Amino acid sequence: MTIKNEVGRREFLKNMTLAGAMAAVVPALSSPLPGMSPEGLLQANRGGDWVRFGHDLHNTRFNSVEGRLGKSNVGRLWQKWHFETEAPIQTTPTVVGDTLYFGTMAGYQYALEAATGKEKWRFFAGYNPEPGAGNQGVRSSAQYEDGKLYFGTGLAKVHCLDAATGEEIWQVQLDDDPMRNRAQIFCSVAAHRGRLYVGTSSAQAQAVCLDAETGRIRWRFYVVEKSRKGGGSIWTSPAIDETANIVYFVTGSLKSYMPPDPMLFSESMLAFDADTGEMLWHDQVRAADTFDLDFSCHPMIFDAVHPAQGNEVRKCVGAGSKAGFYCFNRYTGQRYWKAMLTSSGPSSGPILNSTAVAYNRIFVVSNAAPVRGRSAMSVTAALHAYTGDIMWWIANPAHVRGPVAVANGVFYQGFDDGTLEAVDVNSGERLWTHKLPGLIRSGTAISNGTLYTATGDTLGWRPGGDKKYGVYAFSPDGQ
Question: What is the full DSSP assignment across 204-272?
Fold first, then answer.
């Protein structure tokens, strides 16, 4: 773990930590379901909307104000509508008022009526059909902010659209040579105070800050020096501490070039001053890793309450890698704990944003490797946010390959066999199960009494093919 060596900065971080210790305490989950509204969670959430990938700027994937869908009626979920698409969907639906937004692997951004699934508009952001071009299309979930929609594409571009009409306002190319560098944007944009934060996955991965009005680059950080090529891709959305004005990114493993000296920022948690891009601290959990143990789960900001002493609070940021879940002091980078639930490997551990935080617990789905020809499975666990101790866990018969969600006492998860489940956050009891006709990669959004998700299996898909995919809406009794 490395901290910026500057007296003024150290004093600032020290003061932030002390201030956090004296802040109002959020109760732990000692009763069946206490309230939880940490400062900042509602700033990016208007009513019951789901305005961005992580729901809020802390990336909790927890809708703290959802009151219509919960344990009392989740067992009555029934399909309300289905919108069919020609390409896989691997974006979490964005829901704002009466409109739902999502992107497809064929390069389209859609807007639908949230109540009916009827199409409002679609925008073509581009697609490269050349063999070997890699995954193109739209895999970056849309961020809604002040009437605009922001998202990235497999062509390493960020687009800004008028959310009401779908008309493009601006676009910006983030990689000088996206084909040569195999540059793409899987990362979902985070918007805060007139600025956008996004990362690229490529041989020259970048963390970038853009002006929200114009798309102008305000600062950028190369994970690997621009003169070299080594990976360190940023696969997922950054998290923002609005009070301290810090943006957090996590990075992937080295890829195309293994240098004789270590690369400092691969497989790391990175903390930047959101205005200037100055690095405040970083922790590289594995250096020169040859096992592809990426951070492919989004960083999450949370306040962790001591299990016995309610006035003791840790200001945390954490993220899941294929080697387990890591929890840090979000102002100093001190590593608090690590939890490993299954074996490490390229397709094992917590992957593809399969984590959420709520009720003083970290919810993690961790994949296991196949054993002696048997099908791979996974486990879902609730970890105590302060200690990392397992509160409960359940075994699953399939892998998870998409984001999870929490709302009103219920945890939602989807698997690569198409199973969609609702689980009690207190006990792990399964409350509802439904089978969709395809792998779930899009993640779940819970908004205003409705569950939204989509199918996204890329196996066998090709542009212009006849295989069908779609977005699904479920509500109690389908109403």
Answer: B-EEEEEETTT--EEEEEESS-TTS--B----S--EEETTTTEEEEE---B-S---SS--TTTTEEEEE
